Amino acid sequence: MIRFVRISAYVLQGLVLGTLLAITIIKLLETAGGESLFWYQEF
Amino acid sequence: MSDGNAAKTPADAESTSDAPTPGAGAVFVRTLLSPSWPGLLLTLIVAAAWLGGLMLWLTPDRVASIDEGYFIIGERDDYYVVTRRVFQIQRAPEEPNGVIVLGSSTIKAAVTNEQDLTRRLSTRLGIDAPVHVLTTGGQTIYDMTAIVDGTIDKIGGAVLINAWAVHIAPPDDLAADIAANPRLGFQSDALDAELKHSGIEPRTRTDVYWLDNQGFYSRRMFEAAMRTFEGPRVRRAHPPRPRLNPQRLEASVTERAGWVADSLDRIESGKEDFDELTDLVDLIHRRSKAKVVLLDAVMSPLLRSRIDADRWAKHVERMKAYAAAHDTVYWDVSGDLGLTDDMFHDDVHINNDTAREAFSEELMRRLADYMQTRKSKPAGGGA
User: Fold this and answer.
1) Is the pLDDT of residue B11 over 80?
2) What residues have CB less than 8 Å from B307, skipping those under 6 apart?
3) Predicted confidence band at B13 (pLDDT cuts at 50, 70, 90)?
4) How distant is the Cα of B285 from the closest Cα of chain A, in angstroms?
5) Would you say A36 and B61 are in contact if contact means Cβ atoms under 8 Å apart?
6) Which chain B residues contact residue A27 at CB under 8 A?
7) Residues B76-102, buried b or exposed e (16+ Cβ, 10 A)?
8) How far apart are CA A24 and CA B50, in angstroms?
């Protein structure tokens, strides 16, 4: 039972931290990749 | 659920002596909040799965097929819309009479919409002639090159290039800016060649679509995640743009008149030889039978009054001579329409449906005449 509880905690930890890590990497890549979103210059 | 004491084994009893055994909830919370090798391993696996999944999921095919409203961040996110349209054109059958309209927001604000332009042109020609409006706010000659490179193999009717002096005589640092801050979600050999021609080394490609365009998609991926719950964003062709107040209008017209003057300075001094434009025109002629139109920007009478008339008249003659020498035509449609200042949001953006219809009708009339005239010439007959 305790083993199952611990594995569940590891899985939840991995899901949350892994998702946060992926988001962080994507945001870092955005910065490294240049700001490509909006050039609102009007000409 | 059994409690911890009931499940305690003799070995457990030895190892914990007299300490009370924690409950399952306490073990879960303590494990969750404690660093651990299994947790770290799973964290890395989950992060890798997200990134790997994105790489596999995000492809040009998928971008072409998913509603644009999921990815655009606002109504003026033209660069995503055009990226998607380029992918759609690439995947569609060849259009022998297809037309693409390139340019910045002045052209976007001046035309009605694709369906209306297609109807006007097809009616005049008597054949199906789809018109694709691939305009984006602030579109540069480099963006136009990438868009043409991505679509021209499927377009056989005409290409309308927004050839305002500001576009065709770009500042020296624009190429480096474009290389550092790519704005379209695809790569282009022609654009890379143009950047190299300007002494700029293009970005290294991995040929993994998401990796090569991660700057383009990063924020849009988060937008798509939100839109999955909220539904796709609706994009209007012409969001309302009320006329600027006198102070902001004066600032706007002064700034743009300065851009034109700077561009004419570069042209007249010989620093600008239209090499980017010439490469773009040559690219079209080399890969397609499409006719090429050099379309000047839409300018209000107020802006025209702030540009030196003699210099502008000479520029127009220069453009006509350039067009004739490169198997194209040069049109200043808005200059011939008799538009008035109250039809503009500022000094270059029309905000009036009547003016849009007049501009679109005149543009499609000229284009139909040009396409019919050229079509009547024998193949290989030259300019």
Assistant:
1) no
2) B257, B260, B261, B299
3) very low
4) 27
5) no
6) 218
7) bbbbbbbbbbbbbbeeeeebebbbbbb
8) 12
Q: Encoding tokens for residue B236?
A: 């209007």
Contact with chain B for residue A28, Cβ under 8 A:
no
* Sign of the dihedral through C-alpha B322, B325, B326, B330: positive
Contacts of A41 in chain B (CB under 8 A): 137-138
High-pLDDT (> 90) share of chain B, %: 67
With an 8 Å Cβ cutoff, is A8 touching chain B? yes
CB of A5 within 8 Å of a chain B CB? The answer is yes
B61-65, B92-96, B174-178, B311-315: the lowest-pLDDT one: B174-178
Distance from CA of A12 to the nearest CA of B (A): 7
Query: Residue for token digits 């998607």?
Result: B84
Distance CA B346, CA B232 (A): 30
In this model, does residue B10 exceed pLDDT 50?
no
| pLDDT level of residue B220 (50, 70, 90 thresholds) | confident
**Cβ within 8 Å, pair B24-A5:** yes
- Average of per-residue pLDDT values in chain B: 89
Give the whole-angstrom CA distance, residue B244 versus residue B348: 12
Q: Does B53 reach chain A within 8 Å, measured CB to CB? A: no
CA distance A25 to chain B (A): 9
B172 vs B169: CA distance, rounded Å: 9
The 3-state DSSP class for residue B102 equals strand
Chain B: closest CA distance from residue A31 (Å): 7
Q: Would you say residue B14 has pLDDT above 50?
A: no
Query: To probe the interface with B, which of A1, A24, A37 has the most B CB atoms within 10 Å?
Result: A37
A39 has a chain B CB within 8 A of its CB? yes
Question: For A13-33, what is the mean pLDDT?
Answer: 84
